[in-house]
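Thread: Newbie trying to understand structure tokens

Hi all, I'm a second-year student working on a class project, and my supervisor (Dr. K.) asked me to get a predicted structure for one chain before our next meeting. I've only ever worked with sequences, so writing a 3D structure as a token string is new to me. If someone could post the tokens and maybe explain what I'm looking at, I'd be very grateful. Here's the chain:
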Amino acid sequence: MLNKIWFSFFAVALLAIVLQLLTGQTQVLSQSVDGIFSSAKLAAEIALGLVGVLSLWMGLMRVGEKAGVVAMFSKLFEPLLSKLMPEVPRGHAAYGSVTMNLTANMLGLDNAATPLGLKAMQDLQTLNPNKQVATNAQILFLVLNTSSITLVPVTVFLYRAQQGAAAPADIFLPILLATTASTLAGLTMVALVQRLSLFNTVVLAYAGVILSSIIGLVFYLSTLTVTAIGEVSTVLGNGILLLLIFSFVLVAGIRKVAVYDEFIEGAKEGFSQSIKLIPYLLAMLLAIALLRASGALDYLLQLIAGMVAFAGGDVRFVDAMPTAIMKPFSGSGARAMMLETMQHYGVDSFAGRLAAILQGSTETTFYVLAVYFGAVGIRNGRHALACGLFADLAGIIAAILVCYQFYG
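---
Reply by user tm_fold:
Sure, no problem. This is what the structure looks like when written as tokens:
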């Protein structure tokens, strides 16, 4: 699967380069070459940036596992996850790391989410009979990771505030609705492919509790200013991180675990893991850089605009589509597109708001797939990419519909 995807990226980029040359746009050659070498530098920078944080969390997770804290934490969602991942035996370490990763994603704790996600993928890999082919549990986890509900997208609020938005947090509910639609779509698609039953007492009970909690949070946050929302998010996120770290170390010490030695052993695993990621990161970033530099994504945008205009539809949403198109490939690229849209059309314009909603409700699916599967040496992701992109598409469509509903 990844071989075909990578080849198709190059083929599309080459076609776009030829089309650019035929129209006299010779600068595409230098842009493409620059993209190739900058992707190599970026891959190394990302991997090296992960060295410290991955070593930190791999070390702490090892201490937490030895202390039994991770096992206690996993019991919160193990009944639900065991229904969604039936091949993972009850009591397995994967439940703890998966639960912690999804929680970090929901709270927007990016500095903890990626290391915890890589740890979860490693734990699931221990149950994989064919180490180069993704299991059903790994695919479900990856799709949930890429479409995870974002409760408080503070970063997007801050960008809107910097651009002079009258009410930077007024897109909170649209983002929550769009990302919820993305998560439900991804989960439903995986369930259909893997023939999982979502209509059982356990799943429905957890769904009811989670949705009730989200509704309660919406009502609470709707009473706060953007500054207050940022403060609540910061306090909550930092408080949870510190609680985890201290509970790991202190409980381990009380239980006579060699906390220093265990941390060092876990950190060594994190260090080696971050270095192993470089080839996988480079491969995906190289292909994405060529797509962007060749103008292929611009041609796709023009095609969408032409089709909508031909059908007589409202084309206002097309102005924000560069963010949507870029997001599955590059988080930084999508952020640049969002800011460009805000500056060009106005931060409180329809396009400006929609770009922000798209930024907050979709994920860098290709990047996550390359990093997470690359970390454990998986080469065949089976239906992971299709389900992940389906979730992205559902999030994009939901964002557009919600934006028309709120601001149309």
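A couple of things are worth pointing out once you decode it. The radius of gyration is 22 Å. The chain has one domain: 2-8+27-407. Feel free to ask follow-ups in this thread.
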